[in-house]
Amino acid sequence: MIANYPLNTWYVAAFGDELGADGVVARRLLGTHVVLYRRSNGTVVALEDRCVHRAYPLSRGHRDGDLLVCGYHGCVYDGEGRLLRVPSQEYAPSNAAVRAYPVREDGAFVWIWLGDARAADLRPVPNSPWNLDAGYADTRETFRVEANYLLLHEHYLDLTNVFLMYPEAAPPGIEALPQLDEVHVSELSVAYARTLPRATLAEWEAEATGLPAETSCDRVEEGAFVSPGLHAQRYVIIPVEGERAYRLVRLQGFTPETDTATHVFLQLARDYETRRGIVADYLRAMFHRMAARDVEVLEAVQSRLDDDLLPRRDVNVKADRAAVRARRIAQSMVEEEAGLPVFD
């Protein structure tokens, strides 16, 4: 069975601040066990988490400066994965090595390429459609969902569930989201935008921005399937035309662990009240609660799909336009890697 995630694309392996000067981070990514650590010069190493001698996880060993020592028989590896020393003999076997994976650190994220290493330089790491500059403050969180990564992309490409799942987040007086203003599709990405009717502020909007609750505002909501490994959303509050807008950007790295589990790397950035820690704490707590509800729903969907003996059979509606296109893009990338004919 072919996995429904492409290999030849960049995925988030960690936040940069997870990798300190000493320890290691172990994760299963795209079905592969990987160990990550940061060298003394600041660069990040990603190796197959499996000693060549007896398959013991290297992440259960220890660091010796920039080297990694297996905790079973003491085999020593460098940052390129080469076996340098075997304590029980004079020389290490020639050409013995674990696989080293291409990595790139960009912004908050450490990206990994788990496909054909020769192709890694041909495709840059994904960029957010809205580059975060020094004027933004952010919070970060990692969590794991027992659901396929495409279910997450589809979930966040259709926010019409907001009134059922997070009614406290909806602006007062708005009872349904309008149709999408536009959906842009490129070869490898899908982006959408919608404008909301003018309304006063929801409680969380007033708390976060510091604006009076009775302020009447326009809002623009945008989202993008940037790549199989990155989802981006932007929510803009506009009090009066011509005045400053309040921008909240939600970047989510979706990295499959397996076909039925996904690592989520959430970065929540804002360009307002950037020096107020209480605002960061408020937004972090709110979006954590929302993410917990998302996880509950997505895991329930995955569980039902796992139990269903028949092929997936969904009825799509107008709100699914962006989600359907994103799934087709991911499917075509998988089929292309497998050498299968691609039909769209």
Automatic annotation (TrEMBL):
GO molecular function: dioxygenase activity
Gene3D superfamilies, per database record: Naphthalene 1,2-dioxygenase Alpha Subunit, Chain A, domain 1, Rieske [2Fe-2S] iron-sulphur domain
Name of the protein described by the UniProt record: Aromatic ring-hydroxylating dioxygenase subunit alpha
Keywords: 2Fe-2S, Dioxygenase, Iron, Iron-sulfur, Metal-binding, Oxidoreductase
Pfam families listed in its UniProt record: Rieske (PF00355), VanA_C (PF19112)
InterPro entries: Cholesterol_7-desaturase (IPR050584), Rieske_2Fe-2S (IPR017941), Rieske_2Fe-2S_sf (IPR036922), VanA_C_cat (IPR044043)
Taxonomic path: Bacteria, Bacillati, Actinomycetota, Actinomycetes, Mycobacteriales
Source organism, top-level taxon: Bacteria
Organism: Tsukamurella soli
Segments forming domain Rieske: 10-112
PROSITE patterns registered for this protein in UniProt: RIESKE
